[in-house]
């Protein structure tokens, strides 16, 4: 099974095209995020080719999710910056990070925290609404019996 996503996740680096393919986005999306400094390459070859460590796949997926949740590019950039400052390139949490490792001022961090709380609160409200609709639809169409009962 040469070239599967699982094998690539264990690879030491991704090219831009490989990262895009693994995340299910276009190569141009990865290049655009690199140009905006949202997801710069972890390494650049002598010929100028961008290479990404495996953790970049998670960061790219997180960027896509943050954008889908309505976060701004600046908020998404701060999230990636925060993650990269507190994690090793393989995604392992760095217990030795200090505040000086994070190049984001306190005001922006507080604004980001407030935004994340607002998004999380909205998500919790929607999860409750979806559960309520599911219960209603289950009662309406299955006579109160769950479709997943054994």
UniProtKB/TrEMBL annotation:
Name used for this protein in its record: MerR family transcriptional regulator
Originating species: Deinococcus antarcticus
UniProt keyword list: DNA-binding
HTH merR-type domain span: 13-82
Keyword tRNA processing attributed: no
Keyword DNA-binding included in the entry's annotation: yes
Domain of life: Bacteria
Record InterPro entries: DNA-bd_dom_put_sf (IPR009061), MerR-type_HTH_dom (IPR000551), MerR_fam (IPR047057)
CDD domains: HTH_MerR-like
């Amino acid at each position: 099974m040469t070239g599967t996503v699982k094998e690539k996740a264990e690879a030491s680096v991704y090219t831009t095209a490989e990262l895009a393919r693994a995340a299910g986005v276009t190569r141009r999306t990865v290049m655009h995020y690199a140009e905006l400094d949202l997801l710069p390459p972890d390494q650049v070859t002598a010929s100028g080719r961008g290479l990404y460590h495996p953790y970049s796949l998670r960061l790219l997926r997180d960027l896509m999710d943050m954008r889908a949740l309505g976060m701004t590019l600046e908020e998404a950039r701060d999230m990636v910056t925060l993650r990269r400052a507190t994690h090793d390139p393989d995604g392992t949490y760095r217990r030795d990070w200090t505040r000086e490792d994070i190049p984001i001022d306190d005001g922006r961090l507080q604004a980001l925290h407030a935004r994340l709380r607002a998004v999380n609160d909205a998500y919790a409200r929607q999860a409750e609404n979806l559960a309520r609709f599911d219960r209603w639809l289950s009662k309406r169409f299955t006579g109160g019996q769950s479709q997943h009962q054994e």
